[in-house]
Amino acid sequence: MGICYCCEKKHNHEEGGVLEVMINPNPLLLPRLSQPLHIAESPEEIQLLKACKSGDLEKVIDLLDRGTSVHIVDHIDGYTPLHCACDNGRVAQVNSITLEEDQFGHLTTTIYDESIAHEIVNKLLRQQVNCNIQARNGQTALHICVRHCYEEIIKNLVEFGDAKESIFIEDNDGNFPVDLVHEDVGDMKGKRVQDYLLAVQFGQINSADE
User: Fold this and answer.
1) Given Cys at both, which of 17, 95, 149, 171 links 138, Cβ 3.0 to 4.6 Å?
2) What are the start-end ranges of the E strands in the chain?
């Protein structure tokens, strides 16, 4: 059992298990990874994961300006800074409020703002992060954004990152990103996300470098 740097909660995994960073085996994707991944160890790297997860944009900017590597993963769940940033909200609306339990079991009120997550994701994309890295559960950053229905971030990952390939990556449960669209999302947002992903899948929308 260990403490995840991203969510600061304990996770149980099989004893002796080794975290394997999962990267889509397609050799065409590998050159996009400019530097090898490593498990976050330095205080700055751990702070970067936490700042991306909590939506602390100023801290993220400060750490990136100081040269903190973005090619890192959390030692428990295998989340990269990009995973953490995309998981910055557990809801599908901007400025939504939710109640959570902290590490002491107390209910706390948290406000999530997709625009903050969007800014952090953009900062990470400028660092040439690999969008197709899979966490321990097999999910890429795109899977997470689709779960949260983060419409604008999804478009940035696909059109300005290299997440177009993530459309075709399955997680450990056999889900492609499009399979994770919530049917109950209001204002047709879920339908727009689904239509967008299908358009990318069938080549109707290209990334910026094509």
Assistant:
1) 171
2) 2-3, 10-11, 22-23, 38-39, 72-73, 96-101, 107-112, 133-134
